[in-house]
Amino acid sequence: MNKQQCKLVALVVAVALASGGGSYWLARQGQAEHTASPAATAVGTTGGKVLYWYDPMVPNQHFDKPGKSPFMDMQLVAKYADEGGEAAGVKIDPGVVQNLGIRFAMVESKTLTEAVAAVATVGFNEREVAVIQARSAGFVQRVYARAPGDVVPAGAPIADLLVPEWAGAQQEYLAMRNTGDKALASAARERLRLTGMPESLISRVEQTGVTHPIVTISTPIGGVIQELDVRSGMTVGMGMTLARVNGLGSVWLEAAVPEAQAGRVRTGLPLVAQLTAYPGETFKGKVIAVLPQTDTDSRTLRVRIELPNRDGRLKPGMFAQVRLEAGTGKPAIMVPSEAIIRTGTRSIVLLAGDGGHFQPVEVQLGQEAGGKTVVLKGLEAGQKVVASGQFLIDSEASLKGVLARMAEGSAVPSPSSMPSNDKTAILNQASGKIEAIKPGEITLSHGPVASLGWGAMTMTFKLAKPELAAGLKPGDKVSFGFSQQGSDFVVQQLGKSGVTP
Prior knowledge:
- By secondary structure, this protein is of the alpha+beta class.
- It has 3 domains: about 105-125 and about 250-390, Elongation Factor Tu (Ef-tu), domain 3 (Beta Barrel); about 130-245, CATH 2.40.50.100; about 415-495, CATH 2.40.50.320.
- The protein contains 9 helices and 30 strands.
- A 6-stranded antiparallel barrel has the order 7-16-19-18-17-20. It has a 5-stranded mixed β-barrel with strand order 26-27-28-30-29.
- Strand 22 and strand 23 (about 355-370) form a beta hairpin.
């Protein structure tokens, strides 16, 4: 890259950082096709089709016809179709792109996944519940040393019940069996079963040949006693609940997933849980249900997770943190989130072509996760986009008119390229009229400046010495010489026209 190109790039970056006006170019992309003007059918002096006219100092503003700029008191410049209009994007020398460190990324089609983290509490598995009831009316003869909260194994005794009705039914059965009538004995035995007598008690009567009206009520599963409503000596009725036991073979985690991520969680997803009680350990489980109601206060959705609890270490009420890889499960078009430029009214991505061509494309965005954003409309897999350095390209597009005029004057040495200790060695000469004089500065309407490629305009200059304006007043026609010092243009020589300064 030669010195002139370096100067052009430096000016692009400086103006972009100073004004931030380049993003307006991106905001206007996609509107050109709806704002066609009569200029689009005009033909310039070069024979090419004119897209519009513009002021090189204010390149964002377009005009339908030629004339004087309302901003800088200079003639408007034509923009030709063969120079690349808005529809053609912008072209930057590939060497400049490489030196600026602009990064690119490929548009991908892949499944979007995101690690969803949520807090949860351990609870009982409500599907492992045993309700122990009295099958017939009777009296409580004995209760065992049980209390709510006790953990009991399967088959643990709860209470002994005396059932008078069963005593008569058992005597009848034994009598029928002694008659040798198998049909009557079978009917009597069926009656015992229908009264609610367990099969184990009937077999015991058959083996011993005596009645057993007292039955021991036991729990069918192991777990924790949630309820115990039986006391010694009390009368119980048929179907009365004596106890309620909740199994501990597995537990549930009730996780609160933020509403914004709830759409990515589905039944069957595997996950990993960590409990405060067991730091450093992980427990694997899966989502068994996504409950259909959202908490209106916390804006979270309840997700039910099942974890095995073979050793009984997971206690209901414990606090846990869960992490699961959630996603839509369907492939989608994705780009790095940093590649997206949000203008406030639309989202834009710079599409990179061959030979340093860049085309702004308006996109419709979807979900964002892990530094990637889903593009619902506007891009296809395999395309290349700009991932960083968009503002440089943006500035290049907005200042193209300025750079073009600088390129035309490239054969004339610029004062800014001269050593800082020799600012007045080469002066830009011009003539014009004084519009206003203030302490330390002067406003001039001047003609073209050949050494800089400027057209006629009105602008304010700094005065190298206040006495340069002595004896002059607004309206006087003057000849002057000026140089550039940093971002200021400073008048070094000044005198009335026809008089050597």
